[in-house]
Structures are given as structure tokens and as C-alpha cells.
Amino acid sequence: MLRKFCDLTCLDGSASMETEKKLEIAALLKVLPPVEFCCVYGSALHPNNTDKITEVADEIGVGVHFNPFVTWKDKMYKYGVVRMDDLIRDILNWERFYLSGRLQKPVRVLVDNLDIGNINSVNLRAATSAALLLSPSRFSEENLYATICSLSYMGDLRMFFAEDKHKVNKIVQGQFTLFQSMYKPFLEEFATKDLLRFTSSVGNQINVSQDCGLSAASSLVSRLPLAIRSDMALKLGNKTHLSESGQVTRELVIASREEAAECMRKIVRRRVMVSSARQAISGLLTVGAVHGVRYVANKMRKAWKSWT
Known about the structure:
Elements: E1 6-9, H1 19-30, E2 37-40, H2 51-59, E3 64-72, E4 75-82, H3 84-93, H4 99-102, E5 108-112, H5 116-134, E6 138-140, H6 141-151, H7 158-161, H8 167-174, H9 176-192, E7 196-202, E8 205-210, H10 214-222, H11 226-236, E9 238-242, E10 248-252, H12 257-287, H13 289-307
Parallel strand pairs: 1-2
Antiparallel strand pairs: 2-5, 3-4, 6-8, 7-8, 9-10
Helix pairs in contact: 3-5, 5-6, 6-8, 11-12, 12-13
Keywords: Lipid biosynthesis, Lipid metabolism, Magnesium, Membrane, Mitochondrion, Mitochondrion inner membrane, Nucleotidyltransferase, Phospholipid biosynthesis, Phospholipid metabolism, Transferase
Membrane topology: Peripheral membrane protein
Pfam families: Tam41_Mmp37
């Protein structure tokens, strides 16, 4: 059973909700079992928490069960549940890079009894590092946020046939000020370490330049989650250092920034691809073929509009 769970609730709209919508969601939460963490990230009611649903979510999916078609007060919600320890592991280590990817984008937290917002700062710092590693020497703030946003869509099977091809740009442009408030502390942190510089400002956004040297690349890689760095070490190798105190440390062998960036890209892409495939299969099994086809059809309809 999913005793402690996170409700990832999506409404049609941005994270900057109107008071009326917030009150509506608050009312909805009152009819659900108590939750430790709840956030709105963009369309979500509690499914039957049977052992079978939990088993499918854990063994086939990525530990999350979504019910995409729940009607409450004449509106449609998509509601998901997950164990809190699974959520925290994904935030810290990008083990599945599923929920962690969602929380790299603006959300409005409604309930947070476990200080997930603070824990998520590790995720946001890692996302900033990954995006910088993938970025050129000069770029705009919007470019950086688009790169961050695109991390969780790399390899996502839905992007090939069931998602709006302009989705990333729409998310960033529609919630630009929210991205700024999320990532400004980390950009300033990286600037104090001379990893980047703010070169100019145009309108409400800044232009950025970064150090593309090998030392800077190593520093960015060191801020990636352990699971990602471990996979990179298998491909790039690592070297062992013995400190004066006799402590053994291992460091990734990075021959070039480009090699490290491409290696990381492939690892993240594979994680997203596997997770999206597993979650799609799990979804079809738990919500049923009719609802599954309906959900995919709605997605494909939106995707088709973006391509025509």
C-alpha cells in the first residue's frame, strides 16, 4: 500500500494559480486521505490504493500511479500517488529521472510536511549543472531554462508522437519569471565560483557567458547526482587519489568538456526513455485500455495541432 504519498496534481493552467483555483484544490484535498506533499504543476483524484495497483506501479512502472480521468465538480483532473521515499530518492539521485524532472519546472506547493521544497534544491542545482554542461560559452537566460526544461524530455517516447513539439518553449516562455525565481540563487552561486558571468541584460532577462575549460567542466560534473556520475565513470573511467590522511577518493576521467557533456546526455536520455516506456505500460495496465487509448488520443491530438 502507498501509505505516504505525493499528490502531483495538474490543472489546466500555469503554476501561478488564481485564488479561486487554489481554494478549489484545497477543497478537493479535504476529500482525500492525508498527504505529506502536494503540488500543482499544470492537470489530477486519488485512485483505489489496492495492492495490485501498487505492484504494477513498482514492478512495471516507476513507482507512480496516475489516474488521468477523474471528474470532480464538473472538471477533469489527473491525480498521481507515489511513496515519499521513492520521490526523495529520485530527487536526490535521478534514479528514474521521472518525478525529479517534473520538479525542475515551476510548481505550486500546496502541502509540504517533509520540507521537499528544501530537498529539491539539490535537484535544481544538479539541473543547472547539467544544463550548463550542455550549453555553449554564451547564451541567454531563456536558453538556459529551455535546456533545463528539456532534460526530462530527452528520449521521452511521447515526444516522438504524442506531445506538442513546442512544449518546452511554451513552458519556459509562459512561466519565465517563475523559472527566474527558482534558478536565480543557483546562477548567483555558480557566478561566485567563477563558473559563469552575467554579461548584459535585455528586457527582463540576462545574458550569460561561462567558462568552458576542463576544470569548469569537472566542477559541473561533480555537482551531478551520484547515480549519473557513477554511470559516467563506467563509460569514461575514473582515477584514484590517496590523500595525506590515507583516504582514497575517486575522480572521473574527463578528457574534454564535449565528451563529458555527450556522455551525460546519453545517460539522461536513456533514463528518461526507459522511465517513459515503463510508465506508459504501467498506465495502460492500471487505468485500462479504454482510458489509456483515450489519454494517448488526447495527447496525439495536441501534438498534431503543433505540427500542422
